Amino acid sequence: MRQRGYRGARTSRRRGRAEGVMGVEAHATNERVTGRTWTVRLDPVGRGRADVRVSCSRPACAARVLPSAAVGRTAAVEHLKAHLRAGPAPRPLAYCACRADECHTHIRPAGPRERPAPWRCGGPVVLAVITDREGRWWQVMECCSRCAAAHPTAKIAATAPAPDRPAPADASRSATAPTPTVSAFGPHFSHTGSGDAAPHEVPAPRAERPERPERPERPERPARPTRKRARRGRIAQRFVPYELRPVSLRDELTELGEAFRAYQQRAEPDLALLADLHARKAKAFGAWADVSADTGLRREAERAEQAAATARLQHLHRIGEAPEGEGPAVARLLPAPVQWDHARAVLAHVAGHAPLPGPEARLLVLLVTLRTAHSGTGNLVGQDLKGLPLPEPEHLVERLVESGWLRIAGTAEELMASRPENPTRVDVPSLTPDESDPGPFTFGRKMRPKLSGWAQRVVGEKKLRKARTTAEARLLALALATGADGEGRLGPGGQGLDLGSLSSWCAVGPGELPELVDRLTAADWLAEAAVTDTLLTGRLTERVLPLGCPLT
Fold first, then answer.
1. pLDDT tens digits for 487-511?
2. What percentage of the chain's residues is helix, strand, coil (to nearest 5)?
3. Which of 108, 142, 273, 532 is most buried, judged by most C-beta within 10 A?
4. What is the β-pairing status of strands 155-159 and 186-190?
């Protein structure tokens, strides 16, 4: 019986300890929760249709069908903004939403055989909006600012305030501290303020203290001059020691810690600045390791050097440039800036000297100008004209000949029937140079076929042909290809292009431009396009960036 009682008591004690440990673990796991995430998508309704479907991953949001991609993209962005305005702010104690993936997507190995460096989350919790380059989905993620900075397209929508520090344990312990009492069974402890005392308990008597005689007042001593104490820095969860020498190294580590903490409070990430901070940290920790002979500091310096290389690479990819020794980030058909300037010069000349009105005549004049730009003379075959979206190309050639702008060897019918082995010679008198007039263009004989091939690739692009876009849509594609920056954003600095200039170049009214924009968006030429009263904003899709001539 005694053995059985002893075992039962031991089992109950073990069960009590297990329940206590489970309670502590449950309390610890309830302190932080996984970050929220949801996605707004823009999908086509059907093949060959212009209308799109806008859907949200939140259960209470119903999908909507809108007539065009531009309207759907605007509605998707407004829906996302409404969620951000109405939803709660980011929680300071939330884990990163990407924590389940252990942030493997944020770290790229330096070489094919090197393992990725471990990723450490840090900074305040933010609501980051991530989108793809084509503008087909937008994802809101509750994560730390460091993970948000690792995404090339992330934009910070809100930042959580700093979490309140818990009250010191001594204060809570003193509020419930037991007071000693004396009972019939000896001294024990009972909490104060709990009602009447238990039976057989009498509060312990307090000994009366004798009154102390008053001490005479001491004369005031002169105040000692205070010495200015050096700042005690903190960086990477390490305190910079006061006795660290040289003093310049101690000051550099202190300033670096303050700079990192200030960067974590930024609303928008700056990967170039972050790369510079990590490079300074690698150099400073290397010097610190040399002084103190600490291998942990040496490993920290190596990790900082890897973080600097990763942040710098992410910055170059974000701005569309290539690292040293890797060639251009985008393999463009016209790689040199001088070629981009010549392409814009040809488009400007055709816009100001087209002999006939209408977008079809403008497109044909551009093709003939690029074939005869250097000497005023060139060759054409029937396939060149049949590949353009012209309803009556033969009649249009005859109109150009009647206006005197074009001369052909033979008739328009013979030109349409000519083949590559027997091309038709064409002349443009206004482009023929002489002693008094060298011509409107300054590029040489080898540059002309490059510009002509570029224009043919843009006008005859595969998806534009499959969508059977008209001449004005292809003229707009040419204008956008020469009016975007290195990242594909329209206009200088992504500010947009003037609608008046675009409508004049396409030979259409300003009211017809939104329909052309929708056609290019459906053909995967434009993304995030928005038409206002005066500007067209958006960016070229990644698919057509090689055909672009960036603004310099």
1. 889 998 889 999 999 999 998 888 8
2. 45, 15, 40
3. 142
4. unpaired
Domain of residue 345 covers 337-547
Tokens at 252, concatenated: 């550099």
Q: Specify the amino acid at residue 272.
A: A
Segment 474-488, tens digit of pLDDT: 999 999 999 998 888
In a domain, 164, yes or no: no
> What gap in Å lies between CA 355 and CA 324, rounded to an integer?
48
The tens digit of pLDDT for each residue in 109-119 reads: 545 555 555 66
Residue among 237, 258, 155, 133 nearest 541 (CA): 133
- DSSP 3-state assignment of 463? helix
Say what the pTM is.
Answer: 0.45
- Indicate whether 425 and 312 sit together in one domain: no
Q: Once rounded to an integer, what is the mean pLDDT over residues 301-309?
A: 92
Total domains in the fold of the chain: 3
* Diameter over CA atoms, the chain: 132
Residue ranges in 47-88 assigned as alpha helix (H):
69-86
- Residue 363 pLDDT exceeds 70: yes
Q: Classify burial at 187, counting beta carbons within 10 Å of its beta carbon; exposed 0-12, middle 13-18, buried 19 or more.
A: exposed
